[in-house]
Amino acid sequence: MNFVKMVALVHQHQRERDGQGRVIAVVSDLAAAVDIMFDSIVLKVDELDGSLRQFYEQLKSFVGEDRREREFTRFDIRDRLRMGKSQQCLYLSRLVELGYLQQYGHINRGFRYRIAYWDAYALLREQLKSDLQSQLATLEYGQRPEVAGRQTGRQDVPLAREKV
């Protein structure tokens, strides 16, 4: 809510005030805050932290969507992604622990890896964006988004109980 308050304060000259002189936030302030904070919201929803997610996405592009069953070694990855041994080892062990990778082989002969879970990160982002927009439309129009989408010319609606 602090971000909503900041957005409302930025637009305070276009906003109404309550009896105590506080700025009243509107739905468009919430929408702007969601747009600004969207990547942070996605990071909170995703079980992989930012750097691990980035490594995993690079790993998926290295393996290739068309070759999902392809196995690879630490050395293959290190050559391709140009990263240090300790960081790579940490990422690989974390992905194995979370079930994103399967590990084969023995420690003396070297492990081989295969991506076990091909998550749809882009789909997650799109679904989250759609859900947030649906909730904003419900707030703005007070009804289902598919009905609200047909209405035009509505002004911003003050958020209930939200005073800045």
What would your notes on this structure say?
The structure is a single chain. Strands 2-4-3 form a three-stranded antiparallel β-sheet. The protein has a two-stranded antiparallel ribbon with strand order 1-5. It starts with a helix and ends with a strand. Helix 1 packs antiparallel against helix 2 and helix 2 packs antiparallel against helix 6. Strand 3 and strand 4 form a beta hairpin. The relative contact order is 0.16. The radius of gyration is 23 Å and the shape is elongated. The chain folds into two domains: 80 residues, no CATH class; 66 residues, Arc Repressor Mutant, subunit A (Orthogonal Bundle), CATH 1.10.10. The longest helix has 21 residues. It has 164 residues and is of the alpha+beta class.
What is this entry, summarized?
The chain contains seven helices and five strands; from the N terminus they run αβααβααββααβ. By secondary structure, the protein is of the alpha+beta class.
What are the SSEs and their pairings?
Blueprint: H1 2-10, E1 24-26, H2 27-45, H3 50-63, E2 72-73, H4 74-81, H5 85-98, E3 101-106, E4 110-115, H6 121-141, H7 145-148, E5 158-163
Antiparallel strand pairs: 1-5, 2-4, 3-4
Helix pairs in contact: 1-2, 2-6
List the main descriptive attributes of the protein structure presented here:
2 domains, 14% strand, elongated, alpha+beta, two-stranded antiparallel sheet, Arc Repressor Mutant, subunit A, 164 residues
